[in-house]
């Protein structure tokens, strides 16, 4: 392992952490294959999104952490290094023979927006009402899921209309993924969802959360139906992603 070994080990552990899922890179690959893109063309971007997500989780952890100062310093350094590595993945490893340079530039722009001040970095930490927590969910995992779907469509060669539908679909399933995660966590731990003011359930309660689930499903399904009309069975992976979130 390259010097400094401690930093590179921390980066590797963060990305390969088994507690994080692969929802985002799967969404990227499915969106790329939908529009006929080659598998090899999207892998660098899918990896970049996974890396950027790992970095954002590290920063999330530090916002709530009471860890020792040395640990916090390493976490911050690791997050910063991972964000840079994500962009390096896109620029250095995307096959130039498969993906035009202007598309790579668009992917970098989308990733920048997803992790920047209008995305993950701009989320609010103090939540007092439904509007604010939905805004936060959209800027958190929603922005990353939107980026994943859009980048897949761009790399695969999708047109503006298709990419626009993927953008809406990605945002809807991204927020839905978070809401369902909270509901399942509540069911598993049998906790009272109205007692935690920093979660969706703590702010709006379980009944309103279930209503939001249905609203988000409808938004995602509407875009997916239009994509299926054009691409048929190629949209099945995206359909499976949505169906999996309903369980």
TrEMBL record:
The keyword Zinc does not apply. One of its GO terms (molecular function) is metal ion binding. GO terms for biological process: isoprenoid biosynthetic process. PROSITE patterns: PROKAR_LIPOPROTEIN (PS51257). It comes from the Eukaryota. InterPro entries: Isoprenoid_synthase_dom_sf (IPR008949), Polyprenyl_synt (IPR000092). Keywords: Magnesium, Metal-binding. Its cofactor is Mg(2+). Pfam families: polyprenyl_synt. Belongs to the FPP/GGPP synthase family. This is Uncharacterized protein.
């Amino acid at each position: 392992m390259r010097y400094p070994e401690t930093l590179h080990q921390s980066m590797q552990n963060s990305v390969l952490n088994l507690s994080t899922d692969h929802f985002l890179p799967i969404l990227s690959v499915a969106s790329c294959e939908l529009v006929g893109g080659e598998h090899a063309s999207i892998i660098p971007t899918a990896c970049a999104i996974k890396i950027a997500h790992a970095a954002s989780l590290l920063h999330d952890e530090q916002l709530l952490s009471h860890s020792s100062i040395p640990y916090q310093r390493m976490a911050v350094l690791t997050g910063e290094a991972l964000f840079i590595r994500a962009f390096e993945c896109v620029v250095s490893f995307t096959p130039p023979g498969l993906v035009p340079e202007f598309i790579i530039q668009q992917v970098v722009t989308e990733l920048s927006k997803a992790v920047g001040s209008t995305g993950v970095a701009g989320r609010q930490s103090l939540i007092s009402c439904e509007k604010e927590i939905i805004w936060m969910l959209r800027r958190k995992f929603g922005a990353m899921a939107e980026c994943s779907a859009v980048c897949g469509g761009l790399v695969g060669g999708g047109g503006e209309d298709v990419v626009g539908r993927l953008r809406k679909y990605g945002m809807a399933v991204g927020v839905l993924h978070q809401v369902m995660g909270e509901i399942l966590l509540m069911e598993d731990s049998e906790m009272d969802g109205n007692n935690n003011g920093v979660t969706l359930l703590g702010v709006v309660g379980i009944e309103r959360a279930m209503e939001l689930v249905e609203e988000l499903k409808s938004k995602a399904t509407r875009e997916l139906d239009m994509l299926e009309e054009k691409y048929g069975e190629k949209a099945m992976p995206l359909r499976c992603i949505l169906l999996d979130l309903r369980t």
